[in-house]
Amino acid sequence: MGTPGEISRTLRLVREAVRPESSTARLYQLYYQSFSDLTVIAIPLLTPANVQFQPGLLEFQLGGLIEAQAKLIRNGILLRGAVVVGSIVKSYKQLFGPAMIKAYDIERAVAKFPRIVVDDSVIREKKRNPLLQRAHDVPSHGIGSLLRRDKDGRMFVDYLRQPHWQPGYRTFLKAHRNLILNQLEATKDNKNIREKYEWMAGYHNLTITELLRDEPDQKSLKRLKIPVPYR
Asked: How far is 36 from 178, CA to CA, in rounded Å?
């Protein structure tokens, strides 16, 4: 579990990574609440700013989650969570409602591994609701480039491939690889925890394989693979 100081530091780093900027939160009327190791971010759709700017709220939020996951990986911290669409209410500084319950259930029972699961209802709502789409004059590659479908059929935020164009990506991949290898060794006698890192190893190797397919001249990427046949 770690010392109280280590736990406190971890919770602080997570809050700092996922907390929206105050100016953005005010403009889009975001709800943000953190209690213990659980953080909730709720984005209402029909605010004046959303209607006026049509920023593609889903891509905006997914991009923020990718950035947070990549930042926390560098500190050896993993995130698990869920993205849903539904009703949520803030009253007397408390958040509650069907969407809150659904997200909590998915995070606990479905996500299981260090992944942020995007519920299928979100994809359906994006196709229906223009407020979740980018305006035509705003460049976009679509949310398909931000997500990956796992073997269980669930979509999750593809945090590992997304920063590949940024400086330091190889260093990030190496940190991701080393974290997995260290934890596979540390959890070899704990099957329930170890399977989470086995999942990460499979995700890591699949990403490297795809990068090599897209950039076959980058042979040095092979050295960043996990040298074990997980998943």
From this structure: 28
Please give the angle made by the CA atoms of 158, 163 and 168, to the nearest 5 degrees.
140
| Contact criterion met (CB below 8 Å) for 56 and 63 | no
Summarize the chain as % helix, strand, coil (round to 5).
55, 15, 30
**Whole-number Å distance between alpha carbons of 216 and 34:** 43
CA atoms within 13 A on the CB side of 40: 20
Domain boundaries, the chain: 4-159, 163-231
- 124-141 confidence digits (pLDDT tens): 888 887 767 765 555 555
Instruction: State the CATH class of domain 4-159.
Output: alpha beta
pLDDT of 21 over the 90 cut: no
List of E strands, the chain:
31-35, 38-42, 81-83, 89-91, 94-96, 116-118, 147-149, 155-157
Q: Select the highest-mean-pLDDT range: 7-16, 124-133, 140-149, 199-208.
A: 199-208
C-alpha closest to that of 145 among 128, 133, 121, 162: 162
* pLDDT single digits (tens) 182-202: 999 999 899 999 999 999 999
**Model confidence, pTM:** 0.86
111 to each of 56, 178, 225, how far by Cα in Å?
Answer: 25, 23, 24
**Rounded Cα gap, residues 209 and 67, in angstroms:** 22
Element (H, E) at 74: none
